[in-house]
UniProtKB/TrEMBL annotation:
Keywords: Signal
Boundaries of every PorZ N-terminal beta-propeller domain copy: 49-193
Signal peptide residues on this chain, from the entry's feature table: 1-20
Entry protein name: PorZ N-terminal beta-propeller domain-containing protein
InterPro entries documented for this protein: PorZ_N (IPR048954), WD40/YVTN_repeat-like_dom_sf (IPR015943)
Source organism (scientific name): Chryseobacterium arachidis
Keyword DNA damage: no
Keyword RNA-binding: no
């Protein structure tokens, strides 16, 4: 039976000892896909494998799987190359942006020499890495570089320039004291000496276009259709003809050639051994003893018996929106739009949606091999029957509309139920965007580019699902240039951003499915949106009933939203003004606000396009945290969705590059105390110099902290379910070592709680 743990052996050991930039903590976890295995290396009965957003370590005898990603040690996502030395237990990871992670038993070191290097403006993606002893040869768009793994620094680099044009090294390896590189113009070689960097001194051993190379005592390389054994002299073609070579691997016993549909093995003399079909496409393969293991594109590591081995995760990393429901169940949509509102992002992998049933990730077989073009912007579960799943397909092709599917827990799969075409009689009209349910479990859809006659495709519409007739009733609004975002249901209205024009809609369904009496209340520039705004993008409503509306160039708040929205002429949306250097400044001015989410303590999570995620106080005046891809495990600085599980406080950050979670401090906040917890405790200054967190508090908590003699050293009023104490006394100086008592009451004094904090300076 497979075991999954986050405490690793071998190259993943001691990850708590982080070198260089430390961006992870125990509060973070990844929900990445580990299906697409890019490279593998064997280590004494274990396989170390690299996937798109992390590496994992599979022990064949026990089934144990450990993983390492940006959530617990790495510094980037989008891995493009990987190799590992089983003797030294050192791995080297290369990323698409040109950076590197050196993974050792003592930690992870981040290397950014290539991304910040000047003088070369081409692709800095790491194409390939090959480790020999303590040296690694790295293939990049400009040629090759030699990296010293012990010193963690670069040695020589050879720039392949011919006719003033850079030639990429597709792959390279070291054999003896010589570097071999395969390029689009031939197999190039050079000894590692003083003339190594000079491209004119490199020899062309064999002209041609070659893709892959590897060595371990002997050397093998390949074109797209032919693999060669090279022992000096003229390369000898191996006996098989291939369709499309994906990789060549050489180990102590075999040469392994991964073709489009099969893996071929040869001994190190070039004699053919056998061919193995894994039933799907592989990126790479290796042998351990007499067994062949494939690194697949869609199933992780696969053995000859078609058993698969990988950390659990969604089918792909692409993600756009997420729905949380039931007992820890998750639905993830994988679509997207260019420019936030119009052109669908075409994904050739046609990913559909992903489902987590509370125990494991499940991918609907409906999407495998389906020729319909799916660009799913939203997927939700029906509260009336959680096994009924609805999703929107937003595209310009046949098949756009809303779909209904039924989940079967026994088969762990989904069956197609019905397709609703919404009357899409034009290639661009009636594209469904988002779905939401009201408090009577009625389903509503936001629809972009609806209309008739002269207004064809120019209006935003709302679709109401009629369960009896099993169809959608469409109601056009008067909002021109009719793009739409996912609606939010609150107090009988659908609150819907309009991303293409400077407007926002609150749509009153009158709590019925009938569309004849519906009313759309529209806010625009005259209500206070920025003059230059191109549209609204996101909305959230907080515990005070204020609507926080994010636009393409800032944030606006509509106070007492439900009271004022029905008289739009009197409604005013206002910016939040914060003090910066003694001057008032508009919060998030000129920033595109992708998503806003309110947690159980009324704090706001705000995603800024290109700016990461901000965690704000309830009134927005104070930034509590600011996460970016540079200082946290966020895979990108453009987070397309945020969801908070209010029961647990866990926060989900969704992006086109994958999903990560953060364990927040605020959960299930009420007027009374929950499970009060203080951490870290004890506070040892030599180990921790931050603030002490007290969580599980009431919505409003009066706090007094006293020393052992009963003297009050600190007092405060905490709002939102948690508090951070900086260990300073009333005079602003750090308290002395000792035991401190935390005495707490809720707002009206009806509930009390106590805690102790040990301080060691």
């Amino acid at each position: 039976m497979k075991k999954l743990s986050l405490i690793s052996l071998g190259i993943l050991a001691s990850l708590q000892i982080a070198n260089a930039q430390t961006i992870s903590s125990k509060k973070w976890a990844d929900l990445f896909s580990y299906n697409n295995v890019l490279a593998m290396k064997e280590d004494n009965g274990k396989i170390v494998a690299a996937a798109e957003n992390g590496i994992f370590y599979y022990t064949i005898s026990t089934g144990e799987i450990t993983k390492l990603s940006k959530a617990n040690g790495l510094h980037e996502v989008k891995i493009s190359a990987f190799d590992y030395n089983p003797q030294t237990k050192i791995g080297l990871i290369g990323y698409q942006n040109g950076s590197l992670d050196v993974v050792t038993p003592d930690g992870v070191t981040y290397v950014v020499d290539i991304p910040i290097a000047t003088g070369y403006n081409g692709s800095k993606k790491i194409n390939h890495i090959s480790i020999t002893g303590d040296l690694a040869v790295i293939s990049v768009g400009y040629g090759v570089s030699i990296f010293d793994l012990k010193k963690k620094e670069f040695k020589d680099s050879a720039f392949f320039i011919s006719g003033g044009v850079y030639q990429a090294s597709n792959e390279a390896t070291i054999l003896g004291n010589k570097v071999f590189s395969v390029t689009n113009t031939g197999l190039k070689t050079h000894e590692m000496n003083t003339t190594f960097p000079v491209f004119t001194t490199w020899a062309t051993e064999m002209p041609g276009s070659f893709k892959h190379i590897d060595s371990e005592g002997v050397l093998s390389f390949s074109s797209a259709t032919t693999a060669y054994l090279y022992n000096g002299g003229t390369p000898v073609a191996l006996s098989q003809t291939f369709t499309d070579v994906h990789d060549v691997v050489v180990n102590n016993n075999n040469i392994i050639v991964t073709d489009l549909s099969r893996v071929y093995t040869f001994n190190t003399s070039g004699t053919f051994g056998n061919a193995v079909a894994f039933g799907e496409e592989c990126n790479t393969a290796t042998t351990i003893g007499s067994s062949v293991y494939g690194g697949t594109i869609l199933s992780g590591i696969k053995n000859e018996s078609s058993n698969t081995f990988k950390p659990d995760g969604p089918y792909f990393n692409y993600a756009y929106k997420i729905s949380l429901y039931g007992d820890n169940q998750i639905l993830v949509s994988s679509g997207g739009r260019e420019g936030r509102f119009n052109v669908p992002i075409i994904n050739t992998k046609n990913p559909g949606f992903y489902f987590f049933n509370g125990m494991e990730w499940i991918y609907p077989s409906y999407f495998i091999g389906n020729t319909t073009s799916f660009n799913i912007l939203d997927v939700v579960s029906d509260p009336a029957d959680p096994n009924d799943i609805f999703f929107t397909n937003y595209n310009n092709n046949v098949g756009r509309g809303i779909y209904k599917m039924k989940y079967n827990a026994s088969s762990k799969d989904f069956a197609f139920t019905k397709y609703y075409d919404l009357g899409t009689d034009s290639p661009v009209t009636r594209r469904p965007v988002g779905l939401t349910f009201d408090d009577s479990n009625n389903l509503f859809a936001s629809i972009a580019f609806s209309g008739e006659g002269a207004a064809l495709g120019a209006l935003t519409a709302v679709g109401a699902y009629d369960r009896t007739a099993d169809n959608f009733l469409i109601s056009n609004t008067t909002s021109l240039f009719g793009a739409a975002q996912k609606p939010l249901y609150y107090e009988g209205l659908l609150w819907m951003p309009i991303p293409r024009i400077n407007s926002f809609i609150a749509y009153d369904t009158k709590k019925t499915l009938s569309i004849s009496d519906d009313t759309a209340y529209i806010l625009n520039q005259s209500n206070g949106f920025a003059t230059a705004s191109g549209g609204t993008i996101s909305v959230a409503i907080d515990k005070s009933g204020d609507a926080w509306i994010g636009s393409d160039i800032g944030l606006r708040v509509l106070s007492n939203a439900i009271s004022v929205i029905k008289t739009p002429a009197d409604a005013v949306v206002e910016p939040i003004i914060i003090e910066q250097n003694g001057l008032g400044e508009e919060l998030f001015r000129d920033s595109q606000i992708l998503q806003i989410e309110v947690d159980a303590g009324d704090h706001k999570w705000v995603s800024v396009d290109g700016g990461g995620v901000y965690y704000l106080s309830a009134d927005g005046q104070r930034t509590i945290k600011h996460f970016t891809k540079e200082n946290s495990p966020l895979p990108t600085n453009s987070i397309t969705d945020i969801k908070v599980d209010r029961k647990t406080g866990k926060v989900y950050f969704v992006s086109y590059s994958g999903i990560v979670t953060y364990q927040g401090d605020v959960a299930d906040v009420t007027s009374d105390f929950g499970n009060v917890l203080v951490y870290p405790n004890p506070v040892v200054y030599s180990n921790f110099k931050g603030k002490v967190t007290i969580k599980g508090l009431a919505e409003v908590t009066n706090i007094r902290i006293a020393d052992a003699a009963g003297n009050v050293v600190h007092s405060a009023v905490a709002r939102g379910g948690y508090y951070e104490w900086d260990l300073n006394n009333q005079r602003g100086k750090r308290v002395a070592s000792g035991i401190y008592f935390v005495l707490m009451t809720n707002e009206d004094g009806s509930d009390k709680a106590t805690a102790k904090i040990a301080v060691v300076n």
